[in-house]
Amino acid sequence: MKLLHTEIQIEASPETVWSILIDFEKYPEWNPFIISIKGNLQEGKMLETLMSPPNGKEMTFKPIIRSVVENSEFSWLGRFLFPGIFDGEHIFTLSKNENGCLLVQKEKFSGLLVPFLWKSLDQDTRAGFELMNQALKARAEKGNL
After folding, report:
1. How many CB atoms lie within 10 A of CB 44?
2. Where are the domains of the chain?
């Protein structure tokens, strides 16, 4: 298993950040990494997600939502073909603190293909996480809901 972990301090409430994070219809307005999500935010449901990693090509995948804890956590599990080839559990968490909240965005990768793709994941996917974190921070701190 390999783990990508990013975090950013946002000077806004977890409720404000959450409202942006789950408003999938507005992702094309602000999100440079996950440029589209279609589907309902409900555990067990499938999403259709379009990602645009830096230095990579756009890709569509259909993860299953694993957890939804209002104003706190949202995660999904995506797979390539079938379990054990290339699995990614993507997790967003929000933790309230004295300056607003801390957003953690991470993904746990497992499967046979991970060692072969790790360099790209560690560079390009990590860069995508960071770009998204910065864009989310900017939108939340400006009050652009």
Report:
1. 8
2. 2-140
Spatial contact of 57 and 68, defined as CB atoms under 8 Å apart:
no
Spelled out in words, what is the top-level CATH class assigned to the domain 2-140? alpha beta
CB 2 within 8 A of CB 116: no
Phi-psi region of 18 (alpha: psi -120 to 50; beta: other; left: phi over 0): alpha
Q: Give the confidence band of 144 by pLDDT, cuts at 50, 70, 90.
A: low
> With the C-alpha atoms ordered 31, 32, 38, 41, is the resulting torsion angle positive or negative?
negative
Instruction: Say how far apart CA 124 and CA 98 lie, in whole Å.
Output: 32
**What one-character-per-residue DSSP string does 55-110 give?**
TS--EEE--EEEEEETTTEEEEEEESSSTTSSEEEEEEEEEEETTEEEEEEEEEEE
Over the stretch 40-88, which tens digit does the pLDDT of each residue have? 999 999 999 999 988 878 999 999 999 999 999 999 999 988 888 899 9
